[in-house]
Every structure is written in C-alpha cells, then in structure tokens.
Design goal:
Layout (H helix, E strand, L loop, with lengths): L1 H19 L5 E15 L6 E17 L4 E18 L2 E8 L6 E8 L2 E19 L8 E21 L1 E9 L20 E4 L5 E2 L5 E13 L6 E12 L13 E2 L9 E2 L6 E2 L4 E2 L5 E15 L24 E3 L5 E3 L9 H53 L4 E3 L11 H16 L4 E7 L6 H21 L7 E7 L10 H7 L1 E7 L1
Parallel strand pairs: 21-22
Antiparallel strand pairs: 1-2, 1-17, 2-3, 3-6, 4-5, 5-8, 6-7, 7-10, 7-11, 8-9, 11-12, 12-17, 13-14, 15-16, 18-19, 20-23, 21-23
C-alpha cells in the first residue's frame, strides 16, 4: 500500500514538473453550442423542416507552435428536424377486415409533418489556427475537422390529416363499382387525424465535417484562462438511415380498420411499394459556440511573477549559491563551495549595484523619450491649427472628385476628407460649410442637376451623422453647367463629377 502511494506521488510530481516545462502547450476546454439543425432528406414530396439543437462537450488541444494546434474531445449532440409533405397519394391492394375480398386503398395527405429528434455521442478531432494576440489579448481563430457520431437515441412524431377511400375488387383486379367507399370511418374509409404520438426511430452512425471561427478572449493576465466565442457549421457525410424500408406511410389495418398503421417517411415507399420517399438522410447544424478554456503548464526556465519568487540556476558545481525570498545568502546543499563566503557576498553586492544603475539609466531615458514625444505632439497640433486657419481664410473650396457615372455614394477617400471637415467645424462653431455638386455632360441637364444635388446632400448627411448641426451646412447643385475640364474624354469627365466645399465665417 505504501509503495503504491509513493509511486502515485512520484507520478503526480512528474506531471507537475512536465507542466512547468511545457510552455502552455496543453489546453483543456468545456463548451456549449446551439442553433438550427435539420435532417437533409430531399423528399420527393415536401421539404425539410429545421429545428433547434445543441451541443455540450469537453476537449483537449495540444499546441505545437504559437499558431497551430491539434484537438480531440467528447461531445453530446442533440438534433431536431423533420419533413413537411405537400399533397401526396398512395394506392395499394390489401385484404379486407373479413379476408373475404380485396380492397384497393387510396390514401391522400396534405400538410403532413414528421418531426424527428436524435441524440449522438460525438468524438471530434480538429486542427486549429490562431493569430497572434492584439493589444487587448484577443486572437482570431479558425478550426476544422471531423466528428465520429454514435447514436444514443432517436424518435419522431407525425402530425396532420389523412383521407382514405377504397374499392372492392374482383379476382381480375377490377372494382365491383366505380364509386369508392367513403365516409365509412369504422371500416377504414374517411378522414383521420394522425396520432402525433412519439415513436422510436433508429439512426445509424455518422461522420460529420465541421468548421468554426471566432474570437479567443484572454480572461487572465497570466494567459491561462480564455473564452472562445464563434460560429460553427456541421455537415454529416454519411447517410444516417441506410436501406429505407418496405413500409407504407399509411397502411390499412385489417384487424382494426379505423386505426391505420403509421410509419416514418424515411422508411416508407410509394407507387405500389417500389419507390422510397427519400434516398438518403444527412445531418446539418449551424449556430453559435462558446467555450471556456484553461491552459495547463508553465513557462520553461521562467519566473513566477505572481508570487515574487526568483529561480536561481546553478552555474558550475562548487560555485553555487541561491537567493531565497527572505534575501538570505546560503550555500546550496548539493555542492561544496570553494569560494569563501565573504567573496561571494561582495560579488553579489556588485551585481545588485549594476542592476540598480541600469534601472536608473533606463528610467531616465524613458522619461526623456516621453518628453520628446509630447513636444512632437504639440508641434503637430500647432501645424494643424495653422493649416486650419489658412483653410478658413481661403476663398477657394476643396474638391472631392472621381465619382462614377450617375453614382452618388461616397468613397472611403471622400469620407476621410469629410472627417477633416467634421474636426474643423467642431473646433470653430461659428463657421458654415457650403457644398456644391457638379456632374459631367452625360445625360439630360435636368437629371444632372438632380445628381449634383444628391451628391451634395449625401455629403451633408455624413457630416450631420458625425455631429455637425444641419443649419451650418448649405448644399447646391450646378449640374453640368460649370465643368473644370472639357467633357471630351472619360478622364476629364470623372474630374468634372465632383463636390466643391468652402468654409465661411
């Protein structure tokens, strides 16, 4: 017993030491995901129905460099979906309730829904890529891989109305009468509500491909706790119900004619039992995923800044000393020192003096760097203020040109220029801005006048959205009446399609 305990303690110690040497290569995560799910069946009648589903799981990732990692885990997946069938009919022969003759039964359904629920135990394997963290410790990531799914349960419910009628036929297959039996519910002919009762359904194993992408958020300064938020999509590559079946969707029951036997559309055939309603079934899920992750391990040969301890590394046997948190100089117990204690103390004090001097030099240089930076900012601000005053005193306007033909939208470059006017007008609340729209000569004069006005008004909209009072902005249009260049080529026509902006006190 004692031997087992000792071996266990040694094992735990080895794992802990391995973690300290692992450079945060190991990450454990728990996640939850939810969104839309469905069973893609491509029915010959009707369409697929989407439902809500979800996933919960536990995973492990191994990083073999700062960007790439491999992952595996376990996951419980709940999927809901189904099929909505439009108008469909089926005709078949069946013995009567007494067995004395044969019925030709015709069933007809419209708006019938079958809703399915499935649960899978998934084993995902993935490859993940993540970017370097930004200033706030955020990373973009993308991951993809495959999931092996083992079904744990399956069921479905059927809702809707079926109408049935029948003919009694002779030995040659001809009906005794052209009029069918209808409105005879006790004999199996009439209109019936489907049961809407939960029935078991057997799903097969699944292999799904998946892709997810999102943001990895750092939750702790030690880079050990993270939050993943992203989007995912899973698509099943295998048919999760192979082989179909020989059932009819709505089968006459001779033993109890008023209660038909209902079957899954996934296992049913029509056209006298020769054609299935669906060929195959694939799973599909998409939605939002959130994961909480924890890094396991530490930084190799590093320091633990959180508790203030410093790990001193031995240099040479026989000349080894260590610094403990209480600043007591002591000989390492594993070596025999050949240097007198006083000499080692003097060497240590010299190192401490050098470190303190380096610290003071750096702080002085940092203070000078910050002072120069602040002076440069003040100089840049003075220059910008001077440019602003020159612009206010100028009687000439600034032009924004290069509009596409008949287009009034603002380009990113034009928005950047307008942002400068926002800044100028916020600095001087007494100034006003005059915006004039111009066009080339393509199109009618009336249309060009309207386009010029729309361009000016759109620029005004941008300025107002950024905090400038509408009453300080005046818009006009001169259409094609005031070109800067001859309208005889596209280059000059683009220059004529412009805005002129002038600030006045």
């Amino acid at each position: 017993m004692k031997k087992s305990i000792i071996i266990g303690l040694i094992g735990l110690y080895s794992v802990a030491m391995y973690g300290q040497e692992s450079l945060n290569k190991h990450e454990i995560s728990v996640w939850g995901a939810g969104g839309l799910t469905t069973l893609l069946s491509n029915p010959v009648v009707g369409s697929n129905i989407a439902g809500l589903g979800g996933q919960v799981g536990l995973g492990y990732n191994y990083s073999f460099n700062p960007h790439w990692s491999l992952g595996a885990g376990v996951e419980y997946f709940i999927l809901n979906g189904g099929t909505k069938m439009s108008l469909f009919t089926d005709t078949y022969l069946t013995p009567s309730e007494t067995g004395e003759y044969i019925y030709r039964i015709q069933t007809e359904g419209n708006g019938v829904k079958q809703k399915y629920s499935a649960a899978y135990f998934n084993i995902p394997v993935s490859v993940k890529y993540q970017t370097d963290p930004n200033a706030k410790g955020r990373r973009w990531y993308v991951a993809g891989g495959a999931k092996l799914g083992i079904p744990t349960s399956g069921s479905y419910k059927t809702d809707g109305t079926m109408t049935t009628k029948g003919w009694e036929i002779d030995a040659n297959g001809n009906p005794h009468s052209s009029d069918p039996y209808i409105n005879m519910p006790h004999h199996g002919f009439g209109t019936y509500e489907l049961s809407n009762v939960k029935q078991d359904f057997k799903f097969e194993m699944n292999l799904a491909a998946f892709l997810e992408t999102g943001i990895k958020w750092r939750l702790s300064s030690s880079d050990r706790t993270f939050l993943y938020t992203g989007l995912f999509v899973d698509y099943g590559l295998l048919d999760v119900h192979k082989g179909g079946g020989e059932n009819r969707f709505y089968q006459y029951n001779p033993q109890e004619p008023s209660r038909y036997i209902e079957s899954s559309i996934f296992t049913s055939k029509y056209n006298n039992g020769t054609q299935p309603y669906v060929d195959k079934i694939n799973t599909l899920a998409a939605g939002i995923k959130v994961a909480l992750a924890f890094s396991v391990g530490g930084h190799k040969n590093g320091s633990n800044a959180s508790n203030g301890q410093v790990n001193a590394q031995p240099v040479q046997p026989g000349n080894v000393w260590s610094i403990r948190p209480d600043n007591i100089l002591t000989e390492h117990p594993d070596y025999v020192s050949t240097v007198p204690l006083l000499e080692r103390q003097a060497a240590l004090m010299g190192r401490l003096d050098a470190i303190e001097a380096e610290h003071e030099i750096y702080l002085a240089a940092a203070e000078e760097r910050r002072r120069q930076y602040e002076e440069a900012l003040l100089a840049a601000e003075d220059e910008r203020q001077q440019q602003y005053m020159e612009l206010l005193q100028s009687s000439q306007g600034i032009e924004l040109d290069n509009y596409d033909l008949a287009r009034v939208t603002l380009t990113p470059e034009q928005k950047l220029a307008l942002e400068q006017y926002v800044d100028l007008m916020k600095r001087d609340p007494d100034c006003s801005l005059y915006i004039t729209g111009h066009t080339c000569n393509l199109g009618s004069e009336q249309l060009n006048m309207r386009i010029g006005q729309e361009r000016a008004d759109l620029a005004k909209d941008f300025l107002v959205e950024n905090g400038i009072a509408p009453s300080r902005i005046h818009t006009f249009s001169k259409g094609e009446l005031n070109p800067l260049y001859p309208n005889d080529n596209e280059v000059d026509r683009r220059k004529n399609r412009r805005l002129e902006l002038t600030i006045r006190e």
